[in-house]
Write the structure tokens for this entry.
Amino acid sequence: MKQVVQNYKSGELALLDVPVPGCKPGGVLVRTAYSLISTGTELMKVSEAGMSMLGKARSRPDQVAKVVQSVATNGVPATYRKVMGKLDSYTPLGYSLCGVVEQVGDGIDDVKAGDLVACAGNEHALHAELNWVPKNLYTPVPDSLAPRHAAFGTVGSIALQGVRQGESRLGEVALVVGLGLIGQLVAQLLTASGVRVVGADPDPARCELAERLGAAACGDPASPAVESAVAELTDGHGVDQVYLAAGGGSNQPVELAARLCRDRGRVVDIGKCRLDLPWNAYYEKELDVRFSRSYGPGRYDPEYEIEGRDYPIGYVRWTERRNLACFLDLAARGRVDVEPLITRTADFDDAVETYQRLKDGELKAVAVLFRYPEQAAEDGPSADAPVVSVPVAPGGARSSAPVRAAKTPVRLAFVGAGNYATSMLLPHLAQRDGVELSTVVTTTALSAANAQRKFGFREATTDLDAVLGDTSVDAVFVVTRHSSHAELTRKALLAGKAVFVEKPLALTSEELTGVLDAVEESGNDRLQVGFNRRFAPLLQEASKRFGARTGPASLRYLVNAGRLDHGSWYLQQGTEGSRFAGEGGHFVDTASWLLGADPVSVYALAPSGNEDLQVVLGYPDGSTATISYVTTGAAGFPKETLDLVADGKVLQLDDFVRSSVYDGRKRWVSSRLPKARDKGQSAELAAFVRAVRTGGPMPVPLRSLVATTAATLAVRAALAGGAPVTLAEAR
């Protein structure tokens, strides 16, 4: 299928061939009839992509701060790979469309194949021929509403949520600053609510359009016409609300709002304009400044948007989905007229040219629609909507991996191609001799296409079964979100593949048991978990210098994990597990490798009020390892520091930059790594590929992988019980 994409590094726009997305549970697969270009939001993104690197940095200081922090934590090369990997990737465009349901996922009963729906979301309602859309981001289209008008649903919801934030009342007067697409819709919604509207925009054509659609008066914000209209309509008191629907770097909209708003009026920011509030003006009138967050309640909440958990209507009357349905109803009943807003309807095949004309200013538009090839007429979908054919691989487990000819490369498939895979794993594999990147499978079509383009995968798909059924694939890498690791690992083992799964192997003891059951059922124990730190060159060298020990050891591991950004999926503990469950296996594995044994007991303490943890591991010979996993430390302090003490010797590791060993007589200190922290990914991958190629043992014994996972999971039980947990019982 085809999808509109942009390379944020170069600014290149393309109509790219990408895999068809799969129809997952909890959503529907939609074939697009019309999608709407948001001439404000999308063109701002397109313009940013055309800037120099310095210009991009200036436009996104929040991202620059993240890069600086990443350099301090991970070093320059790793950060550079991550940043350039993100920049030099195709990103999707679009977030508002109307289309026909082609397939219905499990758990969906409110629509069926052939139904017309409006869809929302910058990850799910893209300019693409097919999109998978979760339940709370689509709604059925009323019978009387044309598909081209239903494509306005998401943008209409943004305008509607802004009006709700303004709490407008019948008979009031409102000022709408910025009469682009959002501003025009805000003006119509206010008029439909019995509010008299004054519009402000420097474009005379947009002012004329708003007046034609119901605004009382409109004019250039720099002219006296707007101020005169406000004075006449409000008897000189000022407007009740101001809606900022403008963009750009000027502070004029904010200053105009203060001048024309009445005492204790409301100012609602809907667009993305400069907000340097003139303190005296806002203070003297005690203005109420409010923000309108996109389509409404539920936005940016993954439990609502992705998992489909609705908010009770008694507590949240208007959610994203209910706003979407409300706007479609208003349009269907003629209370909002979107047809005059359509400047151009372009064929989807001309998408790149259309964007370029908009960017260059050749095409002056309020709204532009893409019409897709399958849209035969504007009054409804075809009765015989085409059906997506998704190949299904034959089942059946194999007890051993396929036999390869002596000189054939090791063929690898990747399930998942997110930041970690593309910055820390694939760069080490793409240029490795004797390795062929066979297939990449992701849930979103564009991420698969990006990985194929950058790393040279032979194929890109969204069909996992096809990969597992491909007898030419020797090993499968599972690099997805934590909640899917155990199930994907289980399936790959049953399919007879060698498996490399990023940590954690499992989030519950039941998931761990399921993986072990798959090993027993298939006879396939070719499994490696991405515990890479034991392969780090500095730690390997320090361990050799430390040498064998005769007595028990004491190990201290401080992990300055830091706070997560708001919205990080690591915070979704209900589905993705706690932070320690997701990351703690790294530190348990490192400690166990250094101590040469698996832990037999776990004790844990947690201070109240934060996510800090103290975990004490006990080992058979009396050795102990204390892992201090803290989120409240200073951001500039190293992330990982380790001390191992035994037999009159001390081993120290300073964040994989330098290591040292003291043995009482002499001191060994490593050279400081000149460029970056090497946490062992390259050596770990080399060991895994070698094991797959030769049929030799996996780099880490299965017994150790299970013990580390069990110890990590036992932390929760130890916290709940307030006493040490014996791992034999935990397993």
Observations:
- The first helix runs from residue 41 to 49.
- The CA atoms of residues 164 and 557 lie 51 Å apart.
- The domain at 533-680+701-730 is CATH 3.30.360.10 (Dihydrodipicolinate Reductase; domain 2).
